[in-house]
């Protein structure tokens, strides 16, 4: 079941975050909240990001699409045929990888959480395909 739900919030600069299509099988509202927090903490990074990111989860959740446009960042439970970046894996693995303490846009190997996140990547549990600079910027935006 798909619902149309729109929420807007201004970020510093000219970027806005928008919650697009949502699904009962999706996690877009959760990602919206994480990105909203990241935009508040790092608005200068948010306004520079451009591209499309799709998260595909092993558990069968709806694909999660994040579009970084010039003025609007849209988060929705939908797919994209040719994203700039695709992140695959189980939801907990993706969340831990994305929110681990970081150093330079990658999980920090000096912390236990960072090493755990890096192990999930090295083992293939979490996989990344596409623009690595976009991936690093996204991770910096999602960092807790």
Structural key phrases:
144 residues; alpha+beta; Nonspecific Lipid-transfer Protein, Chain A; seven-stranded mixed β-sheet; two-stranded antiparallel sheet; 5 helices; 11 strands; 34% helix; 30% strand; globular; disordered N terminus
Describe, in plain words, how this protein is organized in 3D.
The chain has helices at residues 28-41, 43-46, 91-99, 112-122, 132-142; strands spanning 2-4, 8-10, 16-19, 21-23, 51-57, 64-68, 72-76, 85-89, 102-103, 106-107, 127-130. The radius of gyration is 14 Å and the shape is globular. The strands form 3 sheets. Strands 2-3-7-6-5-8-11 form a 7-stranded mixed β-sheet, covered by helices on one side. The chain has 144 residues and is α+β, with helices and mostly antiparallel strands. It has one domain (2-137): Nonspecific Lipid-transfer Protein, Chain A. Helix 3 crosses helix 4. The N and C termini lie far apart (31 Å). The model is unreliable at 1-12 (pLDDT under 50). The protein is built from 5 helices and 11 strands; from the N terminus they run ββββααββββαββαβα.
Q: Outline of this structure?
A:
The protein has 144 residues and is α+β, with helices and mostly antiparallel strands. It contains five helices and eleven strands.
Q: How is the secondary structure organized here?
A:
Elements: E1 2-4, E2 8-10, E3 16-19, E4 21-23, H1 28-41, H2 43-46, E5 51-57, E6 64-68, E7 72-76, E8 85-89, H3 91-99, E9 102-103, E10 106-107, H4 112-122, E11 127-130, H5 132-142
Parallel strand pairs: 3-7, 5-8
Antiparallel strand pairs: 1-4, 2-3, 5-6, 6-7, 8-11, 9-10
């Amino acid at each position: 079941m798909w619902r149309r739900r729109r929420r807007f919030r201004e970020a510093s600069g000219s970027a806005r975050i928008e919650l697009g299509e949502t699904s009962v099988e999706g996690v877009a509202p959760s990602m919206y909240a994480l990105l909203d927090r990241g935009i508040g903490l790092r608005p200068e990074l948010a306004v520079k990001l451009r591209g499309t990111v799709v998260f595909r989860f092993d558990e069968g959740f709806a694909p999660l699409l994040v579009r970084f446009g010039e003025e609007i960042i849209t988060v929705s439970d939908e797919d994209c045929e040719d994203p700039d970046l695709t992140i695959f894996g189980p939801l907990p693995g993706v969340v831990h990888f994305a929110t681990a303490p970081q150093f330079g846009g990658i999980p920090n190997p000096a912390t236990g959480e960072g090493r755990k996140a890096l192990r999930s990547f090295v083992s293939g549990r979490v996989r990344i395909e596409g623009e690595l600079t976009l991936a690093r910027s996204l991770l910096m935006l999602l960092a807790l």
